[in-house]
Amino acid sequence: MDHFELRDGSLHAEDVPLAAIAAAAGTPTYVYSTATIERHARVFREALAGLQDPLIAFAVKANPNKAVLATLAKAGLGADVVSGGELARALAAGVPADRIVFSGVGKTADEMAQALRAGIFQFNLESEPEAETLSAVAVSLGKVAPVAFRVNPDVDAGTHAKISTGGSEDKFGVPISRAMHAYARAAELPGLLIQGVAVHIGSQLTDLSPSRAAFVRIGSLIAELRAAGHAIATADLGGGLGVPYDAAKPLPPSPAVYGEMVRDVTAGWEVRLVFEPGRVIVGNAGVLLTRVVRVKQGETQPFVIVDAAMNDLLRPSLYDAWHEIRAVAPTGERFTATIVGPICESGDTFAKRREMDKVEEGDLVVFLTAGAYGATMASTYNSRGLTPEVMVSGNDWAIVRARQTVESLISADSLPAWLEKEPVA
């Protein structure tokens, strides 16, 4: 469920007309619904009822906007971070350090030091060399790092290859065949406190069978680790639960069904469970608001050219991802068209031969389910400034990231001394 609805023939974000936001903030613009974010956080929390103090650590990479993170922190969620920058964002938004998990395959020594000084809940290690580096950093700072190894269970998540992370040839985690060796090595290293196991098999999961299979393997591993003398107190089950992008496809499992599966599989583990939801919390909470630049007739179909582009919303170009496209003020007429942006790339295509609301030059359009992996993956390709972000709460709204100007892009560049001295021909 989201809070983007038609009222009096015009699409609203909660109680605010999207047309009013477009008039004041311009287009393209991301718009987020506070009520939707809060509802999804509550639904996910309720789905885990009965578990012993689970830590829900929002995957910051899905949407790192400070206002989004602050909303989730207020709702009691922690943060799953994969860089020093994400750690700094989470802390700045009010997420307590003891509710932060640091994942990622390429943590640097500086990032490790940053996290140790902050006092985070857990490092999810992804290799034995990483454990050795963290040990050295922790000892140098006189700290003890609480750690878990992310274990690769060799399970096919059944999702897009670029967001699948649990197969034997994926870059993430320690192979489950080497897990016992990795833990034994970590136990020998000073400055490390082994406290858990972590797993994450992929994103946009629409079938719980792979997750169940992965969790069963992790349960067996926990028993083996304890038998070997390791005190396992936490199990990070990752995230990845999917959201409905295309109404024509079956709905992904609900958080409630996911919670039932987790309770069933983890019964008797006697650990504190950690979860890393991202997309399922914020995906449906955001839209990309854009305006039609013009409609041109092709050989067999019209092209709708909008002012949003692949640099603003990369998912369709990168993953062939589906986003529902709607007119902000639909007339009831429909047509079939290809929707593209202004970037000088054939890949700047949002949908091909899509049946949609008929639109004309100047009309406003939204791409739905754009709250996750939208603005966070944006770039300044073609010297297009980063798109602004707007947060709505009831009948209030605010710009929570300003539109980046071309002047700011240019000012970030500098000329080397030899070009400053030479006159331009």
UniProtKB/TrEMBL annotation:
NCBIfam families: lysA. GO terms for molecular function: diaminopimelate decarboxylase activity. Pfam families: Orn_Arg_deC_N, Orn_DAP_Arg_deC. Residues 30-371 form the Orn/DAP/Arg decarboxylase 2 C-terminal domain. Keywords: Amino-acid biosynthesis, Decarboxylase, Lyase, Lysine biosynthesis, Pyridoxal phosphate. Pathway: Amino-acid biosynthesis; L-lysine biosynthesis via DAP pathway; L-lysine from DL-2,6-diaminopimelate: step 1/1. The modification N6-(pyridoxal phosphate)lysine is found at K61. Belongs to the Orn/Lys/Arg decarboxylase class-II family. LysA subfamily. Substrate binds at R279, R315, Y319, E345, Y373. This is Diaminopimelate decarboxylase. Specifically catalyzes the decarboxylation of meso-diaminopimelate (meso-DAP) to L-lysine. InterPro entries: Ala_racemase/Decarboxylase_C (IPR009006), DAP_deCOOHase_LysA (IPR002986), De-COase2_C (IPR022643), De-COase2_N (IPR022644), De-COase2_pyr-phos_BS (IPR022653), Orn/DAP/Arg_de-COase (IPR000183), PLP-binding_barrel (IPR029066). Homodimer. Its EC number is 4.1.1.20. It catalyses: meso-2,6-diaminopimelate + H(+) = L-lysine + CO2. Its cofactor is pyridoxal 5'-phosphate. Pyridoxal 5'-phosphate binds at G240, E276, P277, G278, R279, Y373.
